[in-house]
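Q: Convert this sequence to structure tokens.
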Amino acid sequence: MSLSTSSTPQQGTAAQQADAAPPRKPSILKQPIAVWAIAFACMVSFMGIGLVDPILPAISQELDATPGQTMLLFTSYLFITGIAMFFTGWVSSRIGIKKTLMIGLVLIVAFAALAGASGSVGEIIGFRAGWGLGNALFISTALSAIVGAAAGGSSQAVMLYEAALGVGMAVGPLLGGLLGSLSWRGPFFGTAALMAVGFIAVMALLRGPQNAPTTGGRVSLTAGFSALKDPALRVLALTALFYNFAFFILLAYSPYPLESAAAAHGAEFGAHELGLVFFGWGLALAIASVFLAPMLTRRFGLRPVLYTMLVLLAACMAVAALAIDSLPTLIVMIVLSGLFQGVMNTALTETVMEATELPRSIASSTYSGVRFLGGAVAPAVAGPLSEALGAEVPYWLAVVTIAIAVLVLAIGGRHLSGPARPHESAEAEAEAIAVGSE
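A:
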């Protein structure tokens, strides 16, 4: 009897200790295979943004096109992506997340392959527009699909999405350079093949409620445009429009000054070399987006970080303009700009999520739509300006648009009272960033 009585408290203590033990932190790596399929497709989708960068000069030479014409590959892609972003919430709320993903993936595969088979730069420009429509449908719903299928809560899904985004932005130019050194058609066919694999994987593995249309939460057709009535969102969207102009001056225009600076010193700077430079830029962008930005915004607050990154980016553009014939200086400024742009992208999208009471899906789609439109204008303007006024002029114009972004942010600051405060929760911050990155 004494044995029985003495063992009871010990068992009770053990049970209490087991109950009190902290739950094991879920691992980002322990995810259903459907999540990995979507993450892979996300990575390839974001690769498509910088994939054509290293092959722009090669397309100019092979298809007898001017730099201004080839840079329209970015313009058509970004313009259609931006316009479509205003309507993707309406589409997915009616046909469901999975069908939206599937349509987006089919369009990317088809138009990437058609771009690779093109016989003129005009055809590629047109097919890149169709690619942009598919990209808008896909990236606007990819995060929701990952969150719905992931194990371990939304924070794990968010980190996986951010990792896929970062890897895609970094690897895109590198793969474009490697395949582009064989033929300018290689990156297009490579993207089509990888996205076809992603399509098959997502179609076979993604199951559940994401297959059905949203019930009770349908988005109106004009919701994206109506969101611009919100003063905070309007200020941030305009800031992003002018900032993204400078972003795509760097990304779409820089291959030409790099090639010219190398040629002036008797060096050859082809697709492979350009791919390595923009891989460095993409790697800096990814590291800054995922690791550096959360640390800085928690410590200093969102708006101070935004102002600082804009000023530093403007300084990089000014140095690039002043040293337009120096290959080493241009390379350093491009890679360094990736750090500032990575922090800026993350901080700006997070500010959008915190500054408005609009539904996050609507706020992010509207913000992304305006942002992409700013990027679409830059390549269309950079080519004619450089041909008429000099190679350094597009960089100086980027400095001007960054200054306008700072001015818009300063004048509209009264609408952004919340984001000036430093953050308390790193997990909540990461979730807001990723939702805004759709």
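Residues 1-22, 419-438 have pLDDT under 50 and may be disordered.
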